[in-house]
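Any chance you could type out a protein's amino acid sequence plus the matching backbone structure tokens because I've never seen that pairing?

——
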Amino acid sequence: MELTPDRLAAQLAGEPLRPVYLVAGPEPLLVLEAADAVRTHARSQGYGEREVFEAEGRDVDWAGLAATFDAPSLFSSQRLIELRLPTAKPGKEGAELIVDYCSRPPGDTVLLVTGGDWSRQHGGKWSEAIAKAGHVVVAWAVRPDQMAGWLETRLRKRGVQADREAVQRLVDLVEGNLLAAAQEIDKLALLADGERLDAARMESLVADAARFDVFRLVDAALNGQGARAARMLAGLRAEGEAVPALMGMVVKELLLVAGLARVQARGGNLAAEFKARRVWDSKQATYRRALARHAAPQWERFVAEAGRIDRIAKGRAPGDAWQVLERLLLVVAESKARPLLA
């Protein structure tokens, strides 16, 4: 059965734990929370052992996962096995293994498959097998016309009362960033003191998460949101920012991704590299999406282009630094925009 993240909690409470769950979608916060709901419910049902298999590039230790399915639990009578697929594509070998698991799931095991993306093209016999034996939970992105309703529901669940204008002001402030919205609502639950919030009170309590800043500018480009990155860059320019002040973070992030791309190109352990570079779990999906768009040599070229932009901004090379930076961000976000750097 296919569920929304909102329906998952009720489904978990109203039936025995299923042997398999697939949680995937383009909205990281909703994927994380839905997967956490499965983990929490599994723990409450006595699933005390947990083992994680994570894709490295496009590879998973499928033989190890198959052996784990067949092996008895070492520390608990029941166990949760997680399979993390950032692209939500298991490939032929993985799909066959998942189908086989679903056809004869062990009685002491729950398989939780998570993915950082989803579309109708992702599905196949493997996801159909999961839907038959368990549940498929798709965390679709919240559309702009749905954002007010999503925020209102979350506010209500956290015990925060807000009028329509206050909710709309929150929509404006978080600018579609669900993680920022969730953080602000958690803060409101502590600060609202049970009072019903109007627009003015909402604005006084909420940090402006929609402020155009360089951190979110680079994240937008790495996440493939070219139009959003261009809009943010225009906002920074309107606020009076200077290109040299932006380039430190731009270069830092491009150097990081270029390093990750080199590791991936030589078949290295990307998860270990994330750990070595102290990349937070919440940022890893962003970098993986970026790495999937461009090969390692292209990331080296982006770093070189960023250096050229810095020289232009400081008057050491000809050109319009704002225009060239915008083009660089668009190419980072969209592989089809590469001719802009030709």
